[in-house]
Amino acid sequence: MSFSAAPVAEDSYARLARTLDSTRLKRDEPIAPYTTFKIGGPADLYYEADSADDLAAAVVAARQARIPYFVLGLGANILVGDRGFRGLVIRNGAKHFRFSDDGKLWVESGAVMADIIPQAVERGWSGLEHYVGIPSTIGGAVWQNLHFLSPAPERERTMFVAEVFDRCELLTEKDERKVVDRDYMKFGYDTCILHFTKDIVTWAEFQLTKGNTGDMHRIIQENLSWRGSRHPWLQFHPSAGSIFKKIEGVGAGRLVDQCGLKGFRHGDAQISHIHANIMVNLGHATAKDVRELISIAQKAVQEKFGHKLEPEIGFIGEFDATGV
Length: 324
Known about the structure:
Elements: E1 2-3, H1 10-19, E2 25-30, E3 42-49, H2 52-64, E4 69-72, E5 78-80, E6 85-92, E7 97-99, E8 104-108, H3 113-122, E9 125-126, H4 138-143, E10 147-149, E11 158-160, E12 165-171, E13 177-181, H5 182-185, E14 200-207, E15 209-210, H6 213-228, E16 239-242, H7 252-258, E17 265-266, E18 269-271, E19 278-281, H8 287-305, E20 314-316
Parallel strand pairs: 1-20, 3-6, 4-6, 5-20
Antiparallel strand pairs: 2-3, 7-8, 8-14, 9-15, 10-11, 12-13, 12-14, 16-19, 17-18, 18-19
């Protein structure tokens, strides 16, 4: 997916400022620091929503003002163009949550999974600990049906967040707010119905089960160790996660590796030495560097194996005209 548009007109900005908290509405805000890749130019307008209601109000205000918008969570799985975003970036900072005595977790979509997991474990509720170490908000977890090969030591199956998902509230394309269940979401591998609509999750509810706190801590430690040995650490090598979509039975990363591209560098973007389906920012990588590196990998795999690699990350905003 990609988003781009003409610069925001002054009258549209004024209309937006009258609707939202103008003290939180910024102009020309750099977006790179809000992404896991640490790449990308400024957004014409930037607003941080602090509740589910505030998030819905910001989206509706942008729609009514006819301003292109993008809802940003932790900024994983995306590449923002070097020329930034012509419109409004709404950062989802809605993080309120509550646990019920029956194991129900109600949580706003901007809450970070890494913050919610310890809260669940502390209360003895199991179901989310498998996803520790994966950078994601709750909204992002629902959007991509967050998954991980767990638990250790067997790691016999992929566990999906859909397994504990109960329901969520959506802000629809018609600006209506409605609560939907698991069947409605049509969860799949890396996907759900939200990939085919403009609906936005405002909050979600999960059904957790009573678990042994010691076992959950063991799973957390083993998963962090297992993931850390197979993925570059974001603190040192910013990335967007897997670049290419999964190729069943083959593996996109394996194909890139077999082309001898693991560790290949273009500008300050590099195919990771640890995982060939992850590209890292060595410090000053541009979106253009990454796009061109993607093209290099695609061409090599196509020529050697005949497979067409398709990016799974989102391309957001405006890219250099000479980029791929």
